[in-house]
Write a structure and sequence with these properties.
Layout: H1 5-19, H2 40-54, H3 71-82
Helix pairs in contact: 1-2, 1-3
Pfam family, one: PP-binding
Protein name: Acyl carrier protein
InterPro entries: ACP-like_sf, PP-bd_ACP
């Protein structure tokens, strides 16, 4: 089942608020890795959440700063994998 970018982004923002930012809202374009919001361990935890929630598989070579730079880039990755 295809996932919309909006649904993926909403779930990612919610996960970040609950697990990373202490309920601080994150915009879709905020630089997560560059600004130190998301650590490497949190990125792995986020991948596990995405795989469980959306039934996608994130390959090792996809675990890079380009794909995990912002909520928008992560949502785009999930959407492309669920199509």
């Amino acid at each position: 089942m295809a996932v919309s970018t909006e649904n993926a982004a909403a779930a990612i923002r919610e996960w970040l608020q609950e697990n990373v930012t202490g309920n601080r809202e994150v915009s879709d374009d905020e630089q997560l890795i560059e600004n130190g919001v998301l650590t490497s361990l949190q990125t792995v935890e986020l991948v596990m959440f995405l795989e469980d929630r959306f039934g996608v598989t994130v390959e090792d070579e996809e675990l890079d700063e380009e794909n995990f730079a912002s909520v928008r880039t992560i949502a785009d990755l999930v959407t492309s994998k669920s199509a």
